[in-house]
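Input/output pair, single chain:
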Amino acid sequence: MSAKAETPRTKATPPLRGRGGRERILAAAARLFATQGINATGMEQVAEAAPVSKRTLYAHFRTKNDLVIAHLQHLASSGATLESALTREDVPPLERLLGMFDPTAPDAPAPVRGCPFIDAAAEFPDPASAVHSYARDQKLRMAHLVTALVTELGCAEPEALAEQLVTLADGAASRAMVLDEADYGRHARKAAETLLAHALPSTP
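Output:
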């Protein structure tokens, strides 16, 4: 009986480690990058936390840079970044803009984290590096989305206003992280409301 009892457990082990390997690697990387930083996290740590073999890890991501960029791409598509507020078609343009300053979601992990793209660019300071370039592209995309929204609202100088708003949003996110204060964006929101009130022909 004991031999038969051991057989199912042995057969069940490989699927636990083998299925969804890429997703588990990205989830483990996200946790480790958030808690201890990208450069301080080794590939072996990611493999152990996933858990997957190093062979499986490198089959999905040939280099750490590949893993970091995939991590940032996953964040960009997850709806968990500042930019996600700007693409909500169920929300009016003005509220989308002000949504950049909303508090961190109640179920978000503590402590408060800043913008992951700014964090990544800071850890890869060479502007020519692949990670820094991807982070820059995401921040430019954010400015583009804001420009489109303030243009839709009738701003006479949309590019200038957009840069002011994204600077406020990025600064608020960074200070929220440093101070570990999830609703710090309320200060920047008031400044954004003032900018919008002066720049737009009429504020709904």
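Residues 1-18 have pLDDT under 50 and may be disordered. Residues 72 and 117 are 7 Å apart (CA to CA).
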